[in-house]
Design goal:
Helices cover 38% and strands 17% of the residues. It is α/β, with parallel strands linked by helices. The chain has a 7-stranded mixed sheet, with helices on both faces. A 4-stranded parallel sheet has the order 7-8-6-9, with helices on both faces.
Length: 343
């Protein structure tokens, strides 16, 4: 049994833990061989391969990033992209390919499975936690812990200076990080892409809080959030066609508006890629390891076109259609819980 593995999309903590688990389980339990394709789908298209061994994947569980590197390249937008992938699979004599990715990378995997009969199994990763059919993706827990830690730190400095601090976090289409991180870090208001909120509601909540003697406040805003009725909320710069438009600016804009409306000194900070870097939490290491082992089992059972998933703390497998059909946006019941603490 020979299998390949690639990591695609934005990186996240736990990718190396998956690679380690796939190699360990594939080699030890299934007497298999594993090769890694470099830089997402670019690897199989350009046949950029590296052998993976027990030795080369030793000590990887705590390491952030991905030793295979990553990209968001979409083979379906390139001349003969899918055909080159099929040729590379043959050239390397591979029985199956494990694809570790989010919505976009897994959607490409689905098309490769349907249209080119690629023997593919996916593993869900993304700090955004917005992939359907799995309760959690790995990387999310680490990002939430980073946000929560940042908010703890922001609280003490906000309190010392009687300031309102706005913390912009990742979350292009889904507010999972903002909501979980905000609850854990005691945010006084949270804005998510799923719900447009009027500036007035935010400033009233902050004023109410200050009126009852609190001289500082913390607002968490997801990068994809919008203010109700505000057309110029934030920029979405398209820099290169391979990557999605760069978001950013809502935190800064909100801080200025809040300061003008309330008269309280308000500053913004952007957590940015700090949320994606560094070591995974223990939870993410365990989840990534469970996913990696389960994916190898699917390949050896020839159950292709599937994604491993976490449901009720059990590892299951689901169809790629189910996983990629609709984006998993924030559970608004959770937002309701968060809003108990607004103002
Ligand atoms: O991986 C998902 C994500 O972290 C989004 O939350 C964010 O909008 C995007 O990636 C940023 O990607 P990049 O680092 O390519 O700008």
């Amino acid at each position: 049994m020979r299998m390949g593995i690639l990591t695609g999309g934005g990186d996240c903590p736990g990718l190396n833990a998956v690679i380690r688990a796939v190699v360990r389980h594939g080699m030890k339990e299934h007497n298999g061989e594993v090769v890694g394709f470099l830089e997402g789908w670019r690897g199989p298209m350009q046949n950029m391969v590296m052998p993976l061994t027990l030795k080369s994947t030793d000590g990887l569980i705590q390491r952030g990033g991905t030793i295979l590197r990553t990209s968001r390249i979409d083979p379906f937008t390139l001349d003969r992209g899918p055909e080159l992938i099929v040729e590379s699979m043959k050239k390397n004599n591979l029985d199956g390919l494990i694809v570790v990715g989010g919505q976009e990378t897994c959607s490409v995997a689905l098309r490769m499975y349907q249209e080119h009969k690629l023997n593919v199994v996916c593993i869900p990763k993304t700090i955004d936690n917005d992939l359907s059919a799995t309760d959690f993706t790995f990387g999310f827990d680490t990002a939430v812990n980073i946000v929560s830690d940042a908010l703890d730190r922001l609280h003490t400095t906000a309190e010392s200076h009687n300031r309102v601090l706005v913390c912009e976090v990742m979350g292009r289409h889904a507010g999972w990080i903002a909501c979980y991180g905000g609850i854990a870090g005691g945010a006084d208001f949270i804005l998510v892409p799923e719900k447009e909120i009027a500036l007035h509601d935010i400033t009233e909540a902050i004023k109410k809080r200050h009126a009852r003697g609190k001289d500082h406040s913390i607002i968490v805003v997801a990068e994809g959030a919008k203010l109700e009725g505000d057309s110029g909320t934030h920029g979405a710069e398209e820099i290169d066609p391979e990557n999605p438009p760069r978001l950013g600016g809502i935190g800064d804009r909100l801080a200025k508006l809040v300061e003008t409306e309330t008269g309280f000194e308000t500053r913004a900070m952007v957590l940015g890629h700090i949320q994606r870097g560094g070591s995974p939490t223990a939870y993410d290491r365990v989840l990534a390891t469970r996913f990696g082992v389960a994916a190898v089992d699917l390949v050896t059972e020839k159950k292709f076109g599937r994604m491993v998933a976490l449901q009720h703390n059990q590892i299951v497998d689901v169809s790629l259609e189910e996983a990629t059909g609709v984006m998993k946006t924030l559970d608004m019941e959770l937002y309701k819980v968060a809003s108990v603490f607004f103002g």
